[in-house]
Task: inverse folding
């Protein structure tokens, strides 16, 4: 445990420092950028090491894995968002486990979230995921339809639109910054329109390989997994 603790503590220190440096370069206050530790496939002993270093925000891709770790997050007073592709038939399991879903890519999914959270007497904070690189291999709504979808989602009960998220194409430097810049323009433009029922203040973009560029382009939440925990641990028994 000591070895794991030291490894993760050092990684967290490094990532936080890099966020601060990027914020300084962009003339931003580091408090404007939240760090999410993406804990998918990682064992609880690693999560515990992160919690011991003050990390309280985590992200999981799969509903099944969140169910397995939910008691851990509750015990430690940590928040966990769903950040992966979400099927409508899995939404019913979420109201008791999380109040924040980042990967809403359609009005159909938003409606199901509204339905299930209404049954539970809760409101879900959601982000609309945009396919900013127009990639066939990735989920996400069409960026050209972002405002229309935002308006439609904001009319639903039991959901509150908080902003947008994206996963850009794999590329480097100036190329990835162009996608982040485009994403920020969409986010800031829609936020400026003060859509009734929405509270748009979250732009979730940037991961282990590119989060500094995302911060430079206006991200308010970066999702870092490998940079904190190391390579993912896959359990084939999970299915």
Result:
């Amino acid at each position: 445990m000591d070895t794991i603790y030291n490894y993760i503590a050092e990684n967290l220190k490094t990532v936080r420092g890099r966020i601060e440096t990027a914020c300084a370069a962009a003339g931003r206050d580091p408090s404007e950028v939240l760090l999410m530790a993406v804990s998918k496939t990682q064992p609880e002993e690693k999560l515990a090491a992160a919690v011991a270093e003050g990390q309280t925000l985590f992200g999981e891709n799969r509903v099944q894995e969140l169910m397995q770790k939910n008691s851990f997050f509750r015990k430690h007073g940590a928040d966990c968002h769903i950040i992966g592709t979400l099927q409508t038939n899995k939404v019913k399991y979420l109201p008791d486990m999380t109040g924040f879903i980042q990967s809403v890519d359609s009005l159909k999914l938003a409606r199901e979230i509204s339905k299930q959270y209404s049954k539970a007497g809760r409101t879900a904070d959601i982000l609309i995921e945009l396919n900013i690189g127009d990639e066939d291999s990735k989920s996400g709504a069409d960026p050209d339809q972002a405002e229309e979808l935002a308006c439609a989602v904001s009319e639903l009960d039991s959901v509150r639109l908080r902003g947008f998220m994206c996963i850009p194409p794999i590329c480097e430097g100036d190329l990835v910054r162009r996608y982040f810049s485009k994403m920020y323009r969409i986010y800031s433009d829609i936020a400026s329109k003060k859509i009734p029922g929405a509270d748009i203040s979250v732009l979730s973009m940037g991961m282990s390989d590119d989060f500094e560029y995302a911060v430079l382009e206006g991200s308010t939440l970066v999702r870092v997994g490998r940079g904190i925990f190391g390579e993912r641990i896959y359990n084939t028994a999970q299915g």
Remarks:
- The chain has one domain: 2-229.
- The first strand starts at residue 34 and ends at 38.
- The mean pLDDT is 94.
